[in-house]
Amino acid sequence: MCGIVGYVGYREACPILLKGLKRLEYRGYDSAGVAVINKDGNLNVYKCKGKVSSLEEFLDGKDYSGNIGIAHTRWATHGEPSDRNAHPHYSQSGQIALIHNGIIENFRVLKDALIQNGYQFKSSTDSEVLVNLIEYIRKENDCCLSEAVRLALKQAVGAYAIAVIEKGNPDQIIAARQSSPMVIGIGEGEYFLSSDAASIIDYTNDFAYLNDGEIAIINKNKPLEIKTLENETSNLDIRHLELSISQLEKGGYPHFMLKEIHEQPNTIIDCIRGRINPDTAEVKLSGVELNKDKFLQAGRIIFVACGTSWHASLIGEHLIENLCRIPVEVEYASEFRYRNPIIRSNDVVIAVSQSGETADTLAAVELARKAGAFVYGICNAVGSSIARATDSGTYIHVGPEIGVASTKAFTGQVTVMAMIALAIAKEKGTISTERRQAIAKSLLELPQTIKKVLETDKMVADLSKIFTYAHNFIYLGRGYNYPTALEGALKLKEISYIHAEGYPAAEMKHGPIALIDAEMPTVVIAVPDHTYEKTVSNMEEIKARGGKIIAVIAQGDSHARKSADYTIEIPTTDECLMPVIVSIPLQLMAYYIAVYKGRNVDQPRNLAKSVTVE
Ligand code: G6P
Predict the structure, then answer these.
(1) Per-residue pLDDT reduced to its tens digit, 338-390
(2) What pLDDT band is residue 560 in, cutting at 50, 70 and 90?
(3) Separation between Cα atoms, residue 492 and residue 502, nearest integer Å
(4) Could you read off the pLDDT of 127-137 as tens digits, one per residue?
(5) Pocket lining: 403 vs ligand 1, CB cutoff 6 Å
(6) Which of 55, 428, 504, 554 is deepest in the core (most CB within 10 A)?
(7) Which residue, by CA, sits nearest to atom 8 of ligand 1?
(8) On the CB side of 158, how many CA atoms lie within 13 Å of its CA?
(9) CA of 349 to the centre of ligand 1 (A)
(10) How far apart are the CA of 608 and the centre of ligand 1, in A?
(11) Is the CB of 132 under 6 A from ligand 1?
(12) How far apart are CA 243 and CA 132, in angstroms?
């Protein structure tokens, strides 16, 4: 979703801004723009619909010099993607420029009041209202820019991360956040601003994180100042991040998604590193250990998440109910937050989010905390809003995920959930030591097992060619692999735009079977587990109706092979970890079908990597 980059210091701002915007492209956007103040004090704003590369072409031959600037990629919410709706927006007098992520919910009321005071608007955005409100307050109150921003934001209702610069003020950026990510990179005599630390990691490893309701006054060559909307000074929350540039590049792969699929043996190593003792096969998670009582006394665990993280949570439900015997519920964060849920003080709410910035999941965390529940986070992005808003948590540590379709984060989430379940099961004594250690051993072997399953790449690529022109797909699975079927279907629709639905295999008879014909391929997950035979029977039912079956089966399983038209044969691991293995050929299949269809795999239409608005 929208991305923000800013710079103030001694270097040329524009190259830094454009590079940062490119690093944020993965978030999904439809237009881009920059505002820079040049040495003569002119505030130049350039923006256009399309990619950052279109903006670069547009800048060609123009004066984009200057040591201070702000830049933006927009994902349309109010007003269509167009040049005029692109950010930065500037105030009526042309003195102030602003970029904004989020939604100002009461913009209509604010806009009407500004129109009454003689303001006219060039765009349909809520953001242009904010920049004019800042200008109006600045003039009316004869106050400085940061004060005008503060007073304006006190009137604004909604979510935002903003950055503001002003002609005649070439050393200063004012930034603020409310429910939308914003970090400030700290250099020597210079500052960088971004929605994601990864986009400015080339310049610094030290980042100040803004909290909700905080305003940053960023002056070149001066210490960073943070205050609240109530005008109180805030403490700086500075963190040192170690990220390597290679993690942010494609490393020889044609797309980030393929790179991230193939990274999984290593990301799982990073995910379990230091958490499972290879000698004793005991799991050690500090988040669980330090909060042992909360988990032991938990009457219920509630997962809140969106998208792929929600699918991983459904697997978490199986893991925790099976291994720890604690009742689990899995909620879409967007539904949970608005349906007046019953939350008890002995509930443990686990928020699952790759980005740690999903607006609905963050709101669900806040709701759960207010209701007195203990809130645990499973995030990937270190220092993200959800990671900071939760009481405790476990990072999945799979490195930055750039492809919009989540792959390595999903397998990392499931792996962390398995470790959490084992850690709790040990405390509760709900499974035998042998069973616990057997699962832990399988976890330790997971990277090797993933390496083997990745050997199906070429075979899956060939198979995908056959199905590239299908218009609909059904994915079936049971037990631990019902959520894997949902996730397989989601991957396909996200990046190939083919309609796909996931179902529990047994549920097929209650509707989806009516859709089966030779044109409708069905992907069936039929790996060894206690429902295996029943799933093979479902395959026969599909065949009997002329349906084509692609079955994901265990290597060498000649029984299931007989009931399928095509098979993807994979190595096996403990039943409870099979979703990690099964999901990988499904990721590959979605990837290759999308590539054969000529889709933009890493940045599919209309989707955003990090959904920071409702
Ligand atoms: C967006 C992304 C999905 C992701 C979902 C939740 O819709 O496109 O890939 O699963 O958000 O994101 P989170 O960062 O909270 O896991």
Answers:
(1) 999 999 999 999 999 999 999 999 999 999 999 999 999 999 998 899 999 99
(2) very high
(3) 11
(4) 999 999 999 99
(5) no
(6) 55
(7) 609
(8) 23
(9) 18
(10) 8
(11) no
(12) 38
